[in-house]
Amino acid sequence: MGRVPNVTRADVVSAARNPLAFIAARWTPQPRTVRRAALAALVMSVVIVVTGGAVRLTGSGLGCPTWPKCTDDSLTTTSAMGFHGAIEFGNRMLTYVLCAAVGWAIIAARSRKPWRRGTTRLGWAQFWIVMSNAVLGGIVVLVGLNPYTVAAHFLLSSALIAVATLMWQRTREGDGEPKPLVGKSVQQLVWFLVTASVLLIAVGTVVTGAGPHAGDSQEVDRIPIDWETVAKLHAVLAWIVVTLTFALWFVLKAVDAPKGPLDRTRELFLILLSQGVIGYVQYFTNLPEALVALHMLGSCLVWIGVLRVLLALRERPETVTGLPGPSAEATVPTRA
């Protein structure tokens, strides 16, 4: 067992001034550790969406009727609040787990050698989105689950998933200039796919805001629109996304695209088919809670799949610093 180094006063001051730099100077994680940290943050960003959906689907949205405390007199849930209070408070506690996962990703990215500033910034972007969404979640409670704030809460979670996906991808590639793997027309088709997916998610929040699952057992305001009509528009957008994905796969095959974009497109198509089956079954079975929760998980996976298709259209090689060449004097032949 090695000797534990003494902690000097200078070490304490350095750690207090810049904790990340202090850790980075003393720890160099393996590349796979950085990748796993980024993946953990992504997984938790999906988990928090699904558990948030569980809060709404169990009618526990106001299980803790105020914020940041659970009640006016208690920071935590009480036995008198029962099942709904436990569900809502448990979801709030998961925010700290999400913060821990994002914090680990930031520390791992900052400690990597060489340091890649862009990856660390993506970690910090996740942190500030989480903080903003925590505040927005509190506002959702304070305004009695207003459906527009609930929709904004979900959209901000989708933004978190997007940044987490990008960070995970960046930890798995180099830091060189991106090189496109496909032509401009294919890139434009993928951007159409991304746009359609954003619209699909946005309309999905309207379906939620107008639908029967209000998030609480008492009377809660709903978006004043026929939810079945919006659900049909949501289905049309879903078919557009499926059609674009199918067309993209054929185009990639036709232009003999690299394996990466083809694989990501095939994965997205399979996710979309599964999500479509769940969506139609839940619609024709009067929206059972279990299927709605599964559909929310599928929504996250579709969004991640679309982003992975977009990110697969280019590659970023490792930046290699060349060795210094011979000096000018060494290259000039000596005269006899």
Can you write the helix and strand succession as a string?
A: HHHHHHEHHHHEH
Share in helix: 55-70%
Determine the structural class based on helices, strands and strand pairing.
mainly alpha
**Envelope shape:** flat
- Computed CA radius of gyration, to the nearest angstrom: 25 Å
Descriptive report:
There is one protein chain. The chain has about 325 residues and is mainly alpha-helical. It has helices at about 10-15, 20-25, 30-55, 80-110, 115-140, 145-170, 185-210, 225-255, 260-285, 290-310, 330, and strands at about 180, 315. The chain has a two-stranded antiparallel ribbon. Helix 4 (about 80-110) runs antiparallel to helix 5 and helix 7 (about 185-210) packs antiparallel against helix 10. The longest helix is centred in the first third of the chain and has 30 residues, at about 80-110. The protein starts with 8 loop residues before the first helix and ends in a 5-residue tail after the last helix. About 35% of the residues are buried. The model is unreliable at about 320-335 (pLDDT under 50).
Keywords:
336 residues, mainly alpha, 11 helices, 68% helix, flat
Q: Any chance you could write out the topology, listing elements then pairs?
A:
Blueprint: H1 9-17, H2 19-24, H3 31-57, H4 82-111, H5 117-142, H6 147-170, E1 179-180, H7 184-210, H8 227-254, H9 259-284, H10 289-311, E2 314-315, H11 328-331
Antiparallel strand pairs: 1-2
Helix pairs in contact: 3-4, 3-6, 3-10, 4-5, 5-6, 6-7, 6-10, 7-8, 7-10, 8-9, 9-10
Summarize the structure.
With 336 residues, the chain is an all-alpha fold.
